Structure of Bifunctional diguanylate cyclase/phosphodiesterase:
Amino acid sequence: RTDTALYEAKAGGRGRVAVAGGADDDLLEDLRTALDAHALDVVLQPVVVPGVGPDATRFVGVEALARWTHPVRGPVSPAVFIPLAEANDLIGDLDRVVTRRACADAVLLREATGADLFLTVNASGRHLVDPGFVPDLLATAAETGWPLSGLVVEVTESTVESASDATRDTLEELRAVGVRVAIDDFGTGYSALSQLDTMPADFLKLDAHFTAQLTVSDRRRALLAGLLRMSGDLGLVVIAEGVETGEQEDALVALGCPLAQGYWHQRPQPVAALVAALLAARDRDDSPGAVLGGV
Ligand code: C2E
Ligand code: MG
Ligand code: MG
Ligand code: MG
């Protein structure tokens, strides 16, 4: 996933950077510098109960997503800097910086809204096999005051597919201390379906491509209906990612999909902006139970 992925990301990603394909040593050095200075930002995107509306204040959790604004080039897409970090042994540092900021932000969000939320953080497969992963996470949670019971670690379906014993051990270890696990980008890989019954996981995040096809055909919807039933039987809570339209939302509600996430509800935002948006929406709704929590 290194060179080609990077090139494609540069060519097509949002916030693309104006560089030619191939190695970009300058960008790598700048990323290193930014990580050393903890100069990465975090935005939070709500996970909501579908069926409430585009302005949903019914959120149960937030996903933390890394943002990097290069001092000269401006915003760099995660589709560029995440693979760059993964290919150059910086992803552990990146995940640590992001997780620390995210936990601190989640504490603020909880205090401002009074909601009982979970926080999900993305973890690269490479970072999961690092023996320091779990101890670091526990230390971060303790130091920031974010409870382990409110923490969810997202690992991609492709990581799960190729999961070594070490990876599985890490996921088991997380769950043993009360941290939950989500399988991210589900539906983009090849074989994770056959491992779902033995995978140590709590949430299944349905990839945005899958969500986009929801309104395309009855056969697609039948597939999702089956997937939702099966997930429920296995004790996995499904989160549909990338919900962009009211039609997709309606389809999810009709199928009984428990949770959703996407631009239609809320864009990923810095914590202060998110607090303001949620409090404004709650005032408009004037419904005491508008901000939910507790999943
Ligand atoms: P992901 O974990 O699957 O995150 C969801 C992506 O979908 C995010 O892209 C989010 O901004 C975007 N998104 C949210 N709602 C919608 C929607 O309605 N439509 C569409 N088209 N997209 C939507 P983003 O922020 O660019 O991040 C891309 C990927 O980079 C993430 O995918 C994740 O795999 C990775 N990533 C981001 N932050 C971190 C991090 O701190 N650590 C690691 N290891 N990976 C990260
Ligand atoms: Mg994710
Ligand atoms: Mg995803
Ligand atoms: Mg992804």
Observations:
- The mean pLDDT is 86.
- The two ends are 34 Å apart (CA to CA).
- Strands lie at 41-48, 59-70, 74-76, 118-122, 151-156, 180-186, 203-206, 237-240, 259-260.
- The longest strand covers residues 59-70.
